[in-house]
Amino acid sequence: MSTKDGPRGTGEGWSAAERKAEMSAPKQQITVGFVGLGNMGWPMARNLHAAGFDLIVRDIATATQNRFAAEHPGVTPASSPAAFATADIVVTMLPNGGTVRNAMLDWGIGAALPAGALLIEMSSSDPSDTLLLAAGLEPFGLRVVDAPVSGGVPRAVTGELAVMAGGAPADVVRAQPVLEVLGDPARQFRTGVLGSGHAMKALNNVIAAATTCATGEALVVGKRFGLDPQTMVDIINASTGRSFVSGIFDSEVLTGRYGTGFALGLLAKDVHIAAKVAAAAGADAPVIALTDERYAKALSELGPTADQSKAHQAWWDEPLSG
């Protein structure tokens, strides 16, 4: 395990993430494989490196994983699944469950891991995919925890993500040295059986998406009535309609910035997962169904890479910015 020394030995000048990582550094050496170095994965892997874990990294873009290794001394870029042969724990942070399956089963990370290794699946995946993945990894003697996160890139950078962890209690305990570096322990929740974390993540995000629909709708109605959108948002944010979403309308929509850093395609995926969870549960969930319909329309018209805060542009011609 590495320790900090030199002029920064007292912690002076450290970022919050580095201080947190040093405090949370593992008491014994653990080798971690990290798969997916995107907007979220890169800072998460960086925090694990700062905490002193031996790190193996994989990204579908070879140049990305090689650049990460070059910028973080001691990190091993995975040129083949065999690079993961010494990993005790593998973290996946990928766009969806299908991509996770491709990495773990089709590309072959699962077969390369030692029996008893633990997969911490931190992507926003369909819980049914998570259960199928676990079944596919079982012949290799691997364990799985699903631990999706909330907090976006800013909290990935600071290591203060909220974590929703599902799986066998012993497996969740075993995941703690990694999860405590990546997330805020006060915002870590044990959701129950394997797959429950992914279900909770989707249900959380569909609440935000439904609130976006309602907030945008109210602003359009109000504007057509003659109300000023900024005045409306100011009142909403001082009243019972206030939410995380109303803050996004204030900072991103009315300003025309549209820079939450969360792609529309990812939110639409989570909304659709929530609709599938509702259907599987046999629940009467018309709001979730309508939200799924609205986000499918936004995805079709704006494309998956658009910032999620632009979704209202597909629902109404009414401009809200400017």
- Assembly state: single chain
Which range best describes the helical content: under 10%, 10-25%, 25-40%, 40-55%, 55-70% or over 70%? 40-55%
> What is the C-level CATH assignment of the largest domain?
Alpha Beta
Overall average residue pLDDT: 92
Describe this structure in words.
The protein is of the alpha/beta class and 322 residues long. Helices cover 50% and strands 13% of the residues. It contains 15 helices and 9 strands. The chain has helices at 16-23, 41-50, 62-71, 97-106, 109-112, 127-137, 152-158, 169-174, 176-182, 196-225, 229-237, 244-253, 264-281, 286-302, 312-315, and strands spanning 31-35, 54-58, 76-77, 89-92, 118-121, 143-146, 149-150, 161-166, 183-192. Strands 3-2-1-4-5-6 form a 6-stranded parallel beta sheet, with helices on both faces. The chain has a 3-stranded mixed beta sheet with strand order 7-8-9. Helix 10 (196-225) packs across helix 13, helix 10 crosses helix 14 (286-302) and helix 13 (264-281) packs antiparallel against helix 14 (286-302). The protein starts with 15 loop residues before the first helix and ends in a 7-residue tail after the last helix. Residues 1-15 and 23-27 have low confidence and may be disordered.
Task: Provide a short characterization of the protein structure.
This protein has 322 residues and is an alpha/beta fold.
List keywords for this structure.
single chain, 322 residues, alpha/beta, Rossmann fold, N-(1-d-carboxylethyl)-l-norvaline Dehydrogenase, domain 2, 2 domains, six-stranded parallel β-sheet, three-stranded mixed β-sheet, 15 helices, 9 strands, elongated, disordered N terminus
